[in-house]
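Archive entry. Fields below.
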Amino acid sequence: MLRYLLRRMVAMPLLLLGIASVVFLLSQVTKGDPLSALIPERMMSNEQVVATVKAQWGLDRSLPERYLIYMGRLVQGDLGTSFSTRRPVSTDIAGRLPATLELVIAAMIFGCTSGIGLGIIAARFKNTFADSAARIFALIGSSLPVFWSGLILLFIFSVKLGWVSGPGRLDARTEPPPGITGLFTVDSLLAGNMPLFLEALGHLILPAFVLGWSVTGIVTRLIRSSLLEALNMDYIRTARAKGAPESVVILHHALRNALIPSLTILGFTFAYLITGAVLTETIFSWPGIGSYAVSAARSLDYPAIVGVTLVGAMAFLLANLVTDVTYAFANPRVKLEG
Amino acid sequence: MQHDMHLAPPPLLEIAGLRASFRGPNGYAEAVRGVDLTLQPGKVLGIVGESGSGKSVTMMALLQLLPGGSKVTGSAKFRGRELVGMAADEMRHIRGKQIGVIFQDPLSAFNPVLTIGDQIAEAIRLHDRTVSKREGLERAEHLLDSVAIPQPKRRVSQYPYEFSGGMRQRAMIAMAIANSPDLLIADEPTTALDVTVQAQILDLLQRLREELGIGLVLITHDLGVVAGSADEIAVMYGGRIVERGAVEDVFYRTRHPYTRGLLRAMPRVEDDGEDLTPIEGTPPSIWARPGGCAFHPRCVNAQQICAEVDPELRPALATASACHFAASLPPLAAPSELVGAPL
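PREDICTED_STRUCTURE:
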């Protein structure tokens, strides 16, 4: 197990370098001019300005040169400077990643608990009203586009009913809590500031629900089908023959086996949401990594593009690693070998 | 009170007119069609038949362990208590506590993600909440020891896949006797095992029966398995009992063509295997059972009446036989040679 982890830890930076190269080169060959993000429209005809800016940002050099410079800085942990924000990409990401993490973690918690719960209900009461109701709720979650459900829910619960706060992570004039984790709900609790915690939670709850609902859809269907499969196994009959009540049969014997195949999907869903929460972030003005990625792509801000891609890739690699390790714990037949 | 002492002990298990049917696309089909059986405490009853004969279904029906959508009627009394139609919560206290079950394939019958110790301890703790998890594991260790599993201390914390087939079946037996049940149902307990291991498992079951006084129902397709260990045998075919009697009577004085067929198909030590005669054809599906006697399409003695009337189980010679010609079956070529192994 330890050897396996070490090997993966060594492989990870190499993989990231490879990914960085591919993304860097791809963003270079696309037609489009990053200069438009650097120079105002009316200065574009001024050749002197263009030349200065090009030299300043290193855009006058050849592609191999730029590649080597970029990679040379990257291995030192320098992601370069964003064309559009003019700040180091690492600073931008560090400021935005916690927002996304808070949203995605909350969404995953909601999505997994509701999905597992509904999946159990659907499997236990297969082909009854409860099963249909759970499956329809799940289906709606995975098929409604976020930009629609987000807007509707925002309109109903924030504008009309005023039950939850509007867009953003906090009210407009509120100071964020001292940054320890960057997750406002956690930080406000750590600071012992209850009103601030409730405010942050009020802002978080709706986007987390909207994003988590799609996870509910995936998890419900996954748990339902793998539970139904598990409930047909011989060891379930053994458990019943031992005198186990139905709750023990389902929660202790069947669910433990049914969760194993779901782990992989959950790991990937988490990683996917890190960069895939962009629509939710846009609707709820959530200053996360997704909206940063979109503006970077729009202006061909390739240091930012590569930076965000690396974050996404890192999320996938880490999620994969965590999945493998949990898998080994959940399934005694799996041994992680170096 | 005095006259009570003259009464025979109440049977451990008394099954009467038990029927079980499964739901299919075109309505219900009967897998068990009126079975009558009695087992006295501490005795061994062998139920013999091919796959699909209804032998397992009979036993699973009385424990309410059939898949959803199946229907069970008739009567099955365990120590005088009716099991058919018993409420799930009441049944739960009988399963695993008073009736233990051993299944055919011990690999799939154990939960793969829980240790053997956890699963045995669970069987104990489900029926006695005062037992702590640690006590449960200690008792699991003793149980593994009592079924002759070496190094029980190490074995309790292992997973099913780390056990060999024979060891798993021993562990299964340990789990089934964890709460000292009065009745043990063993559903093909040796089918998935090597011949040498089979003998060991049968010895173990026999030993436990003698030591603990457990009544045993031994379900098998192999007459050889019941020959040495059963007191009584019931031969099932097509969801019914076709012959029933004491073990030596069924072996030496059978009055049913199907039992004869099974005996002829049974290999014996002194045979070179050339005289083995299989029963032609295949057992009927519950969805398309022939009319009359279910065995008649495969029966060498079948007459016109066999296709029309399903014979009742009636006393014939020493056994009870469900054959129209039970009394007049031609004698076997050499009855003494039919069963070689001494009983």
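CURATOR_NOTE: Chain A touches chain B at residues 233-235, 237-246, 248, 252-253, 256-257, 260, 330-333 (CB under 8 Å).
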